[in-house]
Amino acid sequence: MSLGLPDNWNAVEAQAAKVDKVNPGQIGEVAEQFEKASENTGDHSAQLKNAAAPLQEGGVWKGPAAESFFEYVANVASAGDRVKAKLSDAAEELTTLQEKLSEIKRKITDAKESAKMEIEDRNERAESEAREAEGTIQAAAGGGDGGAGGGGADPEAIRNAAREANRRTAEQATEKIKGLMNQANQAIKQAQRLMQQEIEGGGYSQVPMPGDAQSQMSSTGGVSAAGGAPSVGSGGGGGGGGAAAAAGGGGEAVAAGGGGGGMGSSGGPPAGPPPGNVEQWIKEAIKILQDNGIPVTEENIDQIWTIIEHESGGDPHAINDWDSNAAKGTPSKGLMQCIDPTFDAHAVPGHTDIWDPVDNIVAGVAYTFDRYGSLEQHPGIASIASGGGYQPY
After folding, report:
1. Which of 184, 253, 275, 276 could form a disulfide with 280 if both were Cys (CB 3.0 to 4.6 A apart)?
2. Which fold has domain 278-386?
Protein backbone atom coordinates (compact mmCIF):
# COMPACT_ATOMS: atom_id res chain seq x y z
CA MET A 1 0.00 0.00 0.00
CA SER A 2 1.46 3.35 -1.11
CA LEU A 3 1.93 5.98 1.57
CA GLY A 4 0.74 8.80 -0.73
CA LEU A 5 0.48 12.43 0.30
CA PRO A 6 -0.16 13.32 3.96
CA ASP A 7 -3.65 14.13 5.24
CA ASN A 8 -2.76 17.85 5.57
CA TRP A 9 -1.57 18.23 1.97
CA ASN A 10 -4.86 19.94 1.04
CA ALA A 11 -3.72 22.99 3.04
CA VAL A 12 -0.66 23.26 0.78
CA GLU A 13 -2.83 23.01 -2.33
CA ALA A 14 -5.29 25.61 -0.99
CA GLN A 15 -2.58 28.16 -0.24
CA ALA A 16 -0.81 27.63 -3.56
CA ALA A 17 -4.12 27.90 -5.47
CA LYS A 18 -4.52 31.50 -4.29
CA VAL A 19 -1.99 32.65 -6.89
CA ASP A 20 -3.37 30.59 -9.76
CA LYS A 21 -5.34 33.54 -11.10
CA VAL A 22 -2.55 36.06 -10.57
CA ASN A 23 -1.41 37.09 -14.04
CA PRO A 24 1.75 39.22 -13.88
CA GLY A 25 1.67 39.50 -17.67
CA GLN A 26 -1.56 41.49 -17.51
CA ILE A 27 0.02 43.84 -14.97
CA GLY A 28 2.83 44.36 -17.45
CA GLU A 29 0.31 45.24 -20.15
CA VAL A 30 -1.28 47.84 -17.87
CA ALA A 31 2.18 49.27 -17.14
CA GLU A 32 2.73 49.66 -20.88
CA GLN A 33 -0.61 51.47 -21.18
CA PHE A 34 0.39 53.89 -18.42
CA GLU A 35 3.73 54.52 -20.10
CA LYS A 36 1.98 55.18 -23.40
CA ALA A 37 -0.48 57.52 -21.67
CA SER A 38 2.50 59.35 -20.18
CA GLU A 39 4.03 59.78 -23.62
CA ASN A 40 0.72 60.97 -25.07
CA THR A 41 0.29 63.50 -22.27
CA GLY A 42 3.74 64.90 -23.01
CA ASP A 43 2.85 65.14 -26.71
CA HIS A 44 -0.42 66.97 -25.95
CA SER A 45 1.34 69.45 -23.67
CA ALA A 46 3.93 70.17 -26.35
CA GLN A 47 1.21 70.61 -29.00
CA LEU A 48 -0.71 73.01 -26.75
CA LYS A 49 2.36 75.15 -26.13
CA ASN A 50 3.30 75.11 -29.83
CA ALA A 51 -0.22 76.13 -30.84
CA ALA A 52 -0.26 79.13 -28.48
CA ALA A 53 3.32 80.25 -29.18
CA PRO A 54 2.67 82.10 -32.49
CA LEU A 55 -0.11 84.16 -30.86
CA GLN A 56 2.12 85.14 -27.96
CA GLU A 57 5.51 85.51 -29.64
CA GLY A 58 4.18 87.25 -32.73
CA GLY A 59 2.21 89.80 -30.74
CA VAL A 60 -0.97 88.82 -32.58
CA TRP A 61 -3.02 88.94 -29.41
CA LYS A 62 -2.35 91.35 -26.55
CA GLY A 63 -4.07 92.75 -23.52
CA PRO A 64 -5.39 91.41 -20.20
CA ALA A 65 -7.49 88.66 -21.79
CA ALA A 66 -4.50 87.49 -23.82
CA GLU A 67 -2.25 87.48 -20.76
CA SER A 68 -4.86 85.48 -18.85
CA PHE A 69 -5.15 82.98 -21.67
CA PHE A 70 -1.39 82.52 -22.09
CA GLU A 71 -1.02 82.05 -18.33
CA TYR A 72 -3.74 79.42 -18.50
CA VAL A 73 -1.94 77.62 -21.34
CA ALA A 74 1.29 77.64 -19.34
CA ASN A 75 -0.51 76.26 -16.26
CA VAL A 76 -2.18 73.50 -18.28
CA ALA A 77 1.14 72.58 -19.90
CA SER A 78 2.85 72.54 -16.49
CA ALA A 79 0.07 70.35 -15.09
CA GLY A 80 0.52 68.11 -18.12
CA ASP A 81 4.19 67.70 -17.28
CA ARG A 82 3.25 66.68 -13.73
CA VAL A 83 0.60 64.26 -14.97
CA LYS A 84 3.11 62.82 -17.43
CA ALA A 85 5.60 62.24 -14.61
CA LYS A 86 2.92 60.66 -12.40
CA LEU A 87 1.81 58.30 -15.18
CA SER A 88 5.42 57.36 -15.83
CA ASP A 89 5.94 56.69 -12.10
CA ALA A 90 2.80 54.53 -12.10
CA ALA A 91 4.11 52.56 -15.06
CA GLU A 92 7.42 52.01 -13.28
CA GLU A 93 5.65 50.93 -10.08
CA LEU A 94 3.45 48.48 -11.99
CA THR A 95 6.48 47.04 -13.74
CA THR A 96 8.16 46.54 -10.36
CA LEU A 97 4.96 44.92 -9.05
CA GLN A 98 4.86 42.61 -12.08
CA GLU A 99 8.44 41.49 -11.43
CA LYS A 100 7.80 40.93 -7.70
CA LEU A 101 4.60 38.94 -8.28
CA SER A 102 6.25 36.85 -11.00
CA GLU A 103 9.08 35.95 -8.63
CA ILE A 104 6.73 35.24 -5.71
CA LYS A 105 4.48 33.08 -7.88
CA ARG A 106 7.53 31.10 -9.03
CA LYS A 107 8.69 30.63 -5.42
CA ILE A 108 5.24 29.42 -4.36
CA THR A 109 5.18 26.86 -7.17
CA ASP A 110 8.71 25.78 -6.27
CA ALA A 111 7.79 25.44 -2.56
CA LYS A 112 4.83 23.22 -3.39
CA GLU A 113 6.68 21.07 -5.93
CA SER A 114 9.77 20.74 -3.73
CA ALA A 115 7.65 19.60 -0.78
CA LYS A 116 5.82 17.10 -2.97
CA MET A 117 9.07 15.72 -4.34
CA GLU A 118 10.54 15.44 -0.84
CA ILE A 119 7.46 13.50 0.32
CA GLU A 120 7.48 11.19 -2.69
CA ASP A 121 11.22 10.46 -2.23
CA ARG A 122 10.68 9.75 1.46
CA ASN A 123 7.76 7.45 0.64
CA GLU A 124 9.85 5.52 -1.84
CA ARG A 125 12.66 5.04 0.69
CA ALA A 126 10.23 4.11 3.46
CA GLU A 127 8.43 1.56 1.27
CA SER A 128 11.75 0.04 0.27
CA GLU A 129 12.90 -0.20 3.90
CA ALA A 130 9.53 -1.54 5.03
CA ARG A 131 9.53 -4.25 2.36
CA GLU A 132 13.07 -5.17 3.30
CA ALA A 133 12.01 -5.41 6.96
CA GLU A 134 9.01 -7.55 5.99
CA GLY A 135 11.33 -9.84 4.05
CA THR A 136 13.62 -10.14 7.06
CA ILE A 137 10.66 -11.02 9.30
CA GLN A 138 9.39 -13.63 6.85
CA ALA A 139 12.85 -15.16 6.52
CA ALA A 140 13.23 -15.27 10.28
CA ALA A 141 9.83 -16.91 10.65
CA GLY A 142 10.72 -19.54 8.08
CA GLY A 143 13.96 -20.25 9.90
CA GLY A 144 12.21 -21.16 13.15
CA ASP A 145 12.95 -17.94 15.05
CA GLY A 146 9.36 -17.75 16.30
CA GLY A 147 8.22 -14.97 13.91
CA ALA A 148 9.68 -12.22 16.10
CA GLY A 149 11.75 -10.89 13.22
CA GLY A 150 15.04 -11.67 14.86
CA GLY A 151 15.26 -8.16 16.27
CA GLY A 152 14.71 -6.51 12.83
CA ALA A 153 12.90 -3.21 12.16
CA ASP A 154 9.10 -2.97 12.34
CA PRO A 155 7.73 -2.27 8.81
CA GLU A 156 4.70 -0.35 10.11
CA ALA A 157 6.89 1.76 12.36
CA ILE A 158 8.96 2.72 9.30
CA ARG A 159 5.82 3.75 7.43
CA ASN A 160 4.43 5.70 10.41
CA ALA A 161 7.69 7.58 10.79
CA ALA A 162 7.49 8.54 7.11
CA ARG A 163 3.85 9.67 7.50
CA GLU A 164 4.75 11.91 10.42
CA ALA A 165 7.72 13.38 8.57
CA ASN A 166 5.48 14.00 5.54
CA ARG A 167 2.98 15.90 7.67
CA ARG A 168 5.80 18.12 8.97
CA THR A 169 6.99 18.75 5.42
CA ALA A 170 3.46 19.76 4.38
CA GLU A 171 3.12 22.08 7.40
CA GLN A 172 6.43 23.76 6.57
CA ALA A 173 5.39 24.19 2.93
CA THR A 174 2.06 25.72 3.97
CA GLU A 175 3.77 28.23 6.26
CA LYS A 176 6.36 29.09 3.62
CA ILE A 177 3.63 29.74 1.03
CA LYS A 178 1.68 31.87 3.54
CA GLY A 179 4.79 33.98 4.04
CA LEU A 180 5.19 34.42 0.30
CA MET A 181 1.50 35.34 -0.01
CA ASN A 182 2.02 38.02 2.64
CA GLN A 183 4.93 39.39 0.61
CA ALA A 184 2.65 39.54 -2.43
CA ASN A 185 -0.03 41.38 -0.46
CA GLN A 186 2.49 43.89 0.85
CA ALA A 187 3.86 44.48 -2.66
CA ILE A 188 0.34 45.14 -3.96
CA LYS A 189 -0.48 47.49 -1.07
CA GLN A 190 2.76 49.39 -1.59
CA ALA A 191 1.95 49.85 -5.28
CA GLN A 192 -1.58 50.99 -4.46
CA ARG A 193 -0.37 53.50 -1.88
CA LEU A 194 2.16 55.03 -4.27
CA MET A 195 -0.35 55.21 -7.10
CA GLN A 196 -3.05 56.78 -4.93
CA GLN A 197 -0.80 59.60 -3.80
CA GLU A 198 -1.90 62.87 -5.28
CA ILE A 199 0.18 64.53 -7.96
CA GLU A 200 2.60 66.89 -6.27
CA GLY A 201 1.60 70.37 -7.37
CA GLY A 202 -1.74 69.13 -8.71
CA GLY A 203 -2.94 67.79 -12.02
CA TYR A 204 -5.29 69.31 -14.55
CA SER A 205 -8.15 69.66 -12.06
CA GLN A 206 -6.04 72.08 -9.98
CA VAL A 207 -5.54 74.54 -12.86
CA PRO A 208 -7.82 77.59 -12.36
CA MET A 209 -9.75 78.77 -15.36
CA PRO A 210 -8.32 81.94 -16.95
CA GLY A 211 -9.69 85.20 -15.63
CA ASP A 212 -9.30 87.51 -12.66
CA ALA A 213 -11.15 85.41 -10.05
CA GLN A 214 -10.09 82.08 -8.58
CA SER A 215 -13.78 81.22 -8.46
CA GLN A 216 -13.66 80.58 -12.18
CA MET A 217 -12.19 77.19 -11.35
CA SER A 218 -15.76 76.02 -10.95
CA SER A 219 -16.78 76.97 -14.47
CA THR A 220 -17.27 74.33 -17.11
CA GLY A 221 -14.66 75.65 -19.53
CA GLY A 222 -13.86 78.63 -21.71
CA VAL A 223 -12.45 82.06 -21.00
CA SER A 224 -14.39 84.76 -19.14
CA ALA A 225 -16.74 86.41 -21.58
CA ALA A 226 -15.79 89.83 -20.25
CA GLY A 227 -12.23 89.31 -21.40
CA GLY A 228 -13.19 88.99 -25.02
CA ALA A 229 -10.93 85.97 -25.51
CA PRO A 230 -11.87 83.04 -27.73
CA SER A 231 -13.43 80.06 -25.95
CA VAL A 232 -11.24 77.09 -25.10
CA GLY A 233 -12.22 73.67 -23.67
CA SER A 234 -11.79 72.60 -20.10
CA GLY A 235 -8.29 71.51 -19.22
CA GLY A 236 -9.55 68.09 -18.23
CA GLY A 237 -10.96 67.22 -14.84
CA GLY A 238 -9.33 64.89 -12.37
CA GLY A 239 -5.96 64.56 -14.00
CA GLY A 240 -4.54 63.31 -10.72
CA GLY A 241 -7.04 60.50 -10.29
CA GLY A 242 -6.13 58.18 -13.13
CA ALA A 243 -3.35 56.33 -11.35
CA ALA A 244 -5.38 56.00 -8.17
CA ALA A 245 -8.29 54.46 -10.03
CA ALA A 246 -6.01 51.94 -11.74
CA ALA A 247 -4.68 50.82 -8.38
CA GLY A 248 -7.92 48.98 -7.80
CA GLY A 249 -9.67 50.24 -4.67
CA GLY A 250 -12.21 47.42 -4.49
CA GLY A 251 -14.34 49.23 -1.91
CA GLU A 252 -17.97 48.34 -1.48
CA ALA A 253 -19.22 51.91 -1.19
CA VAL A 254 -20.27 53.96 -4.19
CA ALA A 255 -19.81 57.59 -5.09
CA ALA A 256 -22.34 59.96 -3.64
CA GLY A 257 -25.45 60.12 -5.71
CA GLY A 258 -28.75 58.80 -4.95
CA GLY A 259 -31.05 56.43 -3.33
CA GLY A 260 -31.62 55.09 0.12
CA GLY A 261 -33.55 56.68 2.90
CA GLY A 262 -31.73 60.03 3.00
CA MET A 263 -28.22 61.33 3.55
CA GLY A 264 -28.24 61.28 7.36
CA SER A 265 -27.62 64.11 9.82
CA SER A 266 -24.30 65.12 8.26
CA GLY A 267 -25.75 65.47 4.76
CA GLY A 268 -23.95 64.71 1.54
CA PRO A 269 -20.24 65.08 0.77
CA PRO A 270 -18.73 68.50 0.05
CA ALA A 271 -17.67 69.53 -3.44
CA GLY A 272 -14.08 69.00 -4.47
CA PRO A 273 -11.47 66.58 -3.12
CA PRO A 274 -9.78 67.20 0.24
CA PRO A 275 -6.03 67.90 0.21
CA GLY A 276 -3.59 65.10 0.85
CA ASN A 277 -3.66 61.35 0.29
CA VAL A 278 -4.65 58.25 2.23
CA GLU A 279 -1.27 57.64 3.85
CA GLN A 280 -1.00 61.25 5.00
CA TRP A 281 -4.52 61.12 6.44
CA ILE A 282 -3.73 57.89 8.31
CA LYS A 283 -0.54 59.33 9.83
CA GLU A 284 -2.36 62.47 10.96
CA ALA A 285 -5.20 60.38 12.41
CA ILE A 286 -2.72 58.19 14.34
CA LYS A 287 -1.30 61.27 16.09
CA ILE A 288 -4.80 62.40 17.07
CA LEU A 289 -5.71 58.92 18.29
CA GLN A 290 -2.51 58.77 20.38
CA ASP A 291 -3.36 62.16 21.90
CA ASN A 292 -6.71 60.69 22.90
CA GLY A 293 -5.26 57.60 24.57
CA ILE A 294 -5.86 55.04 21.83
CA PRO A 295 -2.76 52.80 21.47
CA VAL A 296 -1.95 53.01 17.77
CA THR A 297 1.40 53.64 16.07
CA GLU A 298 2.68 53.96 12.52
CA GLU A 299 3.13 50.18 12.60
CA ASN A 300 -0.68 50.05 12.23
CA ILE A 301 -0.70 52.01 8.97
CA ASP A 302 -1.06 48.89 6.83
CA GLN A 303 -3.97 47.59 8.93
CA ILE A 304 -5.85 50.89 8.74
CA TRP A 305 -5.07 51.19 5.05
CA THR A 306 -6.43 47.65 4.48
CA ILE A 307 -9.72 48.60 6.16
CA ILE A 308 -9.99 51.76 4.04
CA GLU A 309 -9.10 49.85 0.88
CA HIS A 310 -11.96 47.39 1.36
CA GLU A 311 -14.51 49.78 2.84
CA SER A 312 -14.24 52.77 0.50
CA GLY A 313 -11.45 52.17 -2.00
CA GLY A 314 -9.71 55.27 -0.58
CA ASP A 315 -12.52 57.64 -1.59
CA PRO A 316 -13.20 60.11 1.28
CA HIS A 317 -16.55 60.97 -0.32
CA ALA A 318 -17.73 57.36 -0.70
CA ILE A 319 -21.29 56.71 0.46
CA ASN A 320 -23.11 53.37 0.65
CA ASP A 321 -26.65 54.03 -0.59
CA TRP A 322 -27.97 50.50 -0.91
CA ASP A 323 -27.78 48.56 2.38
CA SER A 324 -30.05 48.42 5.44
CA ASN A 325 -28.34 51.41 7.05
CA ALA A 326 -29.04 53.51 3.96
CA ALA A 327 -32.67 52.37 3.99
CA LYS A 328 -32.92 53.68 7.56
CA GLY A 329 -31.55 57.05 6.52
CA THR A 330 -28.06 56.57 7.96
CA PRO A 331 -25.85 55.51 5.04
CA SER A 332 -22.21 54.61 5.65
CA LYS A 333 -19.89 57.47 4.72
CA GLY A 334 -16.27 58.30 4.08
CA LEU A 335 -13.03 56.37 4.16
CA MET A 336 -13.98 54.06 7.05
CA GLN A 337 -17.68 53.90 6.09
CA CYS A 338 -19.08 55.17 9.39
CA ILE A 339 -22.79 55.84 9.85
CA ASP A 340 -23.64 59.16 11.48
CA PRO A 341 -24.65 57.77 14.92
CA THR A 342 -21.47 55.67 15.19
CA PHE A 343 -19.30 58.54 14.00
CA ASP A 344 -20.93 60.98 16.45
CA ALA A 345 -20.38 58.52 19.33
CA HIS A 346 -16.68 58.00 18.59
CA ALA A 347 -15.49 61.32 17.14
CA VAL A 348 -13.03 63.18 19.35
CA PRO A 349 -13.28 66.90 20.19
CA GLY A 350 -12.18 69.09 17.32
CA HIS A 351 -12.59 66.30 14.78
CA THR A 352 -16.33 66.01 14.20
CA ASP A 353 -16.66 66.26 10.40
CA ILE A 354 -17.54 62.85 8.99
CA TRP A 355 -16.48 63.97 5.51
CA ASP A 356 -13.04 65.01 6.72
CA PRO A 357 -10.86 61.96 5.93
CA VAL A 358 -8.74 62.36 9.09
CA ASP A 359 -11.80 62.74 11.34
CA ASN A 360 -13.43 59.71 9.67
CA ILE A 361 -10.35 57.54 10.28
CA VAL A 362 -10.14 58.67 13.91
CA ALA A 363 -13.78 57.75 14.59
CA GLY A 364 -13.55 54.45 12.68
CA VAL A 365 -10.44 53.30 14.56
CA ALA A 366 -11.88 54.50 17.90
CA TYR A 367 -15.03 52.46 17.19
CA THR A 368 -12.89 49.41 16.33
CA PHE A 369 -11.07 49.62 19.67
CA ASP A 370 -14.33 50.25 21.53
CA ARG A 371 -16.09 47.26 20.00
CA TYR A 372 -13.29 44.76 19.28
CA GLY A 373 -10.44 45.80 21.56
CA SER A 374 -7.73 46.25 18.91
CA LEU A 375 -7.09 46.55 15.19
CA GLU A 376 -5.87 42.94 15.16
CA GLN A 377 -9.35 41.84 16.28
CA HIS A 378 -11.16 43.87 13.61
CA PRO A 379 -13.20 41.24 11.67
CA GLY A 380 -11.58 42.09 8.34
CA ILE A 381 -8.01 42.19 9.64
CA ALA A 382 -8.47 39.01 11.70
CA SER A 383 -9.98 37.16 8.74
CA ILE A 384 -7.18 38.17 6.35
CA ALA A 385 -4.55 37.22 8.95
CA SER A 386 -6.02 33.71 9.14
CA GLY A 387 -5.99 33.30 5.36
CA GLY A 388 -9.60 34.31 4.68
CA GLY A 389 -11.19 37.23 2.89
CA TYR A 390 -12.01 40.66 4.27
CA GLN A 391 -15.05 40.90 6.55
CA PRO A 392 -16.81 44.24 7.13
CA TYR A 393 -17.09 45.64 10.63
Report:
1. 276
2. Lysozyme (1.10.530)
β-bridge partners, 348:
351
pLDDT digits (tens, 9 = 90+) for 168-224: 999 999 999 999 988 888 888 877 776 666 555 555 555 555 543 333 333 322 222
Intra-chain end-to-end CA distance of the chain, in Å = 50
Q: Are 350 and 372 in contact (CB under 8 A)?
A: no
> In the CATH hierarchy, which top-level class contains the domain 8-137+159-197?
mainly alpha
C-alpha span between 110 and 56 (Å, rounded):
64
Neighbouring C-beta atoms of residue 36, cutoff 10 Å: 12
Low-confidence ranges of the chain (pLDDT < 70): 1-2, 38, 41-45, 47-70, 72-73, 76-77, 79, 143-152, 194-264, 266, 272-273
Nearest-angstrom CA–CA distance, 378 and 354: 21
Domain extents for the chain?
A: 8-137+159-197, 278-386
User: Distance (Å, rounded) from C-alpha 149 to C-alpha 147?
Assistant: 5
Q: Which amino acid is at 44?
A: H
